[in-house]
Prior knowledge:
By secondary structure, the chain is α+β, with helices and mostly antiparallel strands. It contains six helices and six strands, in the order αββββαββαααα. It has helices at 2-22, 49-56, 74-90, 95-107, 111-116, 120-134; strands at residues 27-29, 32-34, 38-41, 44-47, 59-63, 68-72. The chain has a two-stranded antiparallel ribbon with strand order 1-2. A two-stranded antiparallel sheet has the order 3-4.
Amino acid sequence: MKRKIWFTLIMIFTLFSIVYASNNIRLFVEGKYVNIPVKLINGEPFVSLPKVYKYLGLSYSFDKNTNKVHIKTEKINSLNAQLNLLYLYIYPKSADEAVEKWAYGVKFRNGALQYAVLSPSLKISKNRVMKGLIG
């Protein structure tokens, strides 16, 4: 009798563990974990759009009359424009300037500046190295 009870308890625990593990889907954006619940529906992952929009800094509106969702990206476009202007300012005009800015980045431990002054081919190889270290 005791064996049947233990066997039943172990089976129940195992079933609950399997069900819990199958619902343990995590969302990552650009390699960073985001605490937004993910559900599987017919084998496909689904997330709450308002929570994703909020995380990404987007705004949206839903028109109930036409059943349309409108996503507003002005904030992202504005940030991209600002980054492009900053990049144009930082990007070296000569090899000597690249070396000076690189040395400045090393001196003040500014990896973003060091990365910004790399040539496009060096950025690609550096990205491969970093992805290998992370993933």
